[in-house]
Amino acid sequence: MNLKEEILKLKEKLDVTIVAHFYQRDEVFELADITGDSLELAKKAMLSDSKNILFCGVGFMGESVKVLSPEKRVLMPKIACCAMAKMIDGDYYDDSIKTLNDAGIKSEDILPITYINSSASVKAKVGQMGGMVCTSSNAYKIIEKGLKSGKKILFVPDRCLGQNFAKKMNLTSAVLGDGTSLNDADIICYNGFCSVHQLFSVDDIEFYRNKYEDILIAVHPECDPAICDLADFVGSTSELIKYIKELPVEQKVAVGTEYNMVNRLRTKNTYILSSTKPECPTMNETTLQDVYDSLKLLETEQEEPYLNEILVDEDTAKWANIALNRMLEL
Ligand code: 13P
Ligand code: SF4
């Protein structure tokens, strides 16, 4: 029996649902029961009948599943950490609030919104302050709802996502620590970023436009505002997939997002918008062997917690759940 067959057999025996983000390696993505972007995965994993979820993605995604479905056992073959999510923790969050307070903005006048790419502890802090989570697919709606509170929005941790949506909604934005006036901004962005989505440059866009006159440029909103301003289409993972699949086959498109996903989208006329391969290093950590090893451990190991089981303490889970549910209710 080959590794893939062994995995399928163990999965059935142990009542495991395998969940994989679009950025996973092909070998892992192909055998998953549930695939999707971060929002779809959180929702679909909640609805799964299995007791055990084997989550192939990055740590904050596994944590979100555990927070939304505490009765499930969530295991990750690798607890790979999203580099952007790592840029903020509870202490950095508190420091950011203090910076706003020092600028004369009171805590009760701040409505925090955290991108789903953040730890459960940051989501919990946001939940405690009345705030909510967003993803790249629903950021517009969530910010719109946040603005209705009449408060100033603190957007963490992705500077680019915050700035791109502020522009799209004709709002003013400032970045913490870059010297811009915080008091004049509708949205104050934390200065985090995704190193993978920072790889796409204005030169890359110019290169493709010079080479192919009619090429379209499609990018993820985690790219720098200078890139999003020049693109023909800016969309979340799922929006990019839909946009590209609906293009006529002869239409060339250069895409600015993670390599694995772009590579399996369309066989012809699709280009990676970079001379460097934009692979997310942590999303790529999980291999088929890791999936097999995790299942084998679940089969043989009696003592809990299991290696790489996702656990979130009760208080953090309670508040993170509130912040996530404020998003899901929309
Ligand atoms: P999505 O919310 O589009 O799945 O994005 C997650 C992510 O990590 C993008 O880099
Ligand atoms: Fe995090 Fe960027 Fe990887 Fe997405 S692509 S998981 S934002 S490091």
Overview of the structural elements:
With 330 residues, the protein is an alpha/beta fold. The chain has three domains: 3-81 and 283-313, 3-Layer(aba) Sandwich (Rossmann fold); 85-189, PrpR receptor domain-like (Rossmann fold), CATH 3.40.50; 197-272, Rossmann fold, CATH 3.40.50. It has 14 helices and 13 strands. The chain has helices spanning 3-14, 26-29, 38-47, 59-68, 90-102, 120-128, 139-147, 159-168, 202-211, 225-230, 237-245, 259-263, 288-300, 314-328; strands at residues 16-21, 34-36, 52-56, 73-75, 110-115, 132-134, 152-156, 173-175, 187-189, 216-219, 233-234, 253-256, 270-272. The strands form three sheets. A five-stranded parallel sheet has the order 6-5-7-9-8, sandwiched between helices. Helix 1 (3-14) packs parallel to helix 13, helix 4 crosses helix 14 and helix 6 (120-128) packs across helix 14. The chain is flat, with a radius of gyration of 20 Å. The N and C termini lie far apart (46 Å). The model has no long low-confidence stretch (mean pLDDT 95). Iron/sulfur cluster (SF4) is lined by residues 58, 82-84, 117, 194, 196-197, 222, 258, 280, 282-283.
